[in-house]
Design brief:
The protein is mainly α and 204 residues long. The protein has 2 domains: 1-95, no CATH class; 99-204, no CATH class. 66% of the residues lie in helices and 0% in strands. It contains 9 helices and no strands. It has helices spanning 5-14, 19-35, 49-63, 83-94, 100-126, 130-136, 146-155, 160-183, 192-203. The longest helix has 27 residues, at 100-126. The chain is elongated. The chain starts with a helix and ends with a helix.
Length: 204
């Protein structure tokens, strides 16, 4: 459930909740998902889990949370979630997406990409290639110009052609890790490519 809290929080903020209310709503909803029986009714044959989750979240906000008062603040926290980072995530997205449902989906896509990127960072750190990752990470989804390749080469004490090979390998590994992350969210492996294409479409 950890990969879904940011989309839930961002969607709640877009629907008008204050940051504190969105924090409480997210915690309470996830607690209900984990400790209740809501997940028991999730049927993978009837659609994607994230769509089911969004529907359940909207019902929760309407039927439960908005009927409760602020005295519920300070209740049981089910997960150690970094809501300060969550608020920054929301602020980065809110100016580009006015619709709460699309906010949820954009945040979902962004979260999965970030998870794959974090796995990539860990992979390169484990191989003592932190500097290479840090210099090239901003080029995962776009291509440098010839002059930018030369600049990267100087920064890495290497040639532009060597940087091109290194970036190609970085992107290839990133693609593999992204597929692994997305595979953990779908029931049918045949849906992986479709999910990735939709992610990229949402983030354009």
């Amino acid at each position: 459930m950890r990969r879904y809290w940011l989309p839930l929080y961002s969607s709640g903020r877009r629907q008008g909740l204050s940051n504190h209310d969105a924090e409480d709503a997210t915690q309470e909803f996830l607690s209900g998902m984990i400790n209740g029986n809501l997940l028991d009714s999730a049927d993978p044959t009837k659609g994607r889990f994230r769509t089911y989750l969004l529907t359940a979240w909207k019902r929760f906000l309407i039927d439960q949370y908005r009927k409760q008062n602020s005295e519920r603040r300070g209740g049981v926290v089910t997960m150690a979630l970094n809501f300060e980072a969550g608020e920054q995530h929301w602020l980065a997205l809110q100016s580009r997406e006015p619709d709460p449902d699309r906010m949820f989906m954009r945040s979902w896509a962004s979260s999965l990409l970030e998870e794959a990127k974090n796995r990539l960072r860990t992979d390169y750190n484990r191989r003592n290639r932190q500097t290479l990752f840090e210099e090239l990470q901003s080029w995962l989804t776009q291509s440098p110009s010839a002059s930018e390749y030369s600049q990267l080469g100087r920064q890495l004490n290497s040639s532009a052609s060597t940087v091109k090979v290194a970036l190609h390998r970085l992107r290839t590994r990133f693609g593999t890790l992204l597929r692994e992350v997305v595979a953990e969210t779908v029931n049918d492996p045949n849906d992986i490519d479709r999910e990735i294409n939709e992610m990229l479409h949402l983030l354009r």
